[in-house]
């Protein structure tokens, strides 16, 4: 882990850090399981950012202004959030055209989140498919 990324994780309260590290693990596990190649991990706009070749960046983070939740951000110039709204509006909460809002407490919708992350990580390979191949 790069030092600036490690420093960013260290800035979060412990309970937030643990959840965000779980999301990070999901990304690396998906990249490994689906042989997506090396995960580029860095900071973009002050948020944790993850990208693989052929994918669209996934960013996530937490703000003290909304302490009970964290957000996962997708590129607003993709069809990702439109697709997620179509598929998962009964499970996920969306804000604007790039943000998925998740609660820190309780159970994360892991399977749904994994599907969203995988679609983002493979976006340029699947963007031509209806509903991104879901």
Automatic annotation (TrEMBL):
SUPFAM superfamilies for the chain: YdhG-like (SSF159888)
Stated name of the protein? DUF1801 domain-containing protein
State the species of origin.
Shewanella hanedai
């Amino acid at each position: 882990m790069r030092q600036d990324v490690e420093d960013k994780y260290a800035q979060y309260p412990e309970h937030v850090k643990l959840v965000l590290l779980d999301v990070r693990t999901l990304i690396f596990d998906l990249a490994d399981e689906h042989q997506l190649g090396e995960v580029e991990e860095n900071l973009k706009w002050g948020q944790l950012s993850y990208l693989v070749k052929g994918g669209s960046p996934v960013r996530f983070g937490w703000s003290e202004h909304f302490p009970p939740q964290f957000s996962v951000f997708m590129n607003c110039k993709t069809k990702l959030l439109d697709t997620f709204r179509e598929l998962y509006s009964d499970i996920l909460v969306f804000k604007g055209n790039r943000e998925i809002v998740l609660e820190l407490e309780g159970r994360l919708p892991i399977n749904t989140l994994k599907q969203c992350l995988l679609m983002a990580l493979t976006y340029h390979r699947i963007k031509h498919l209806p509903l991104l191949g879901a």
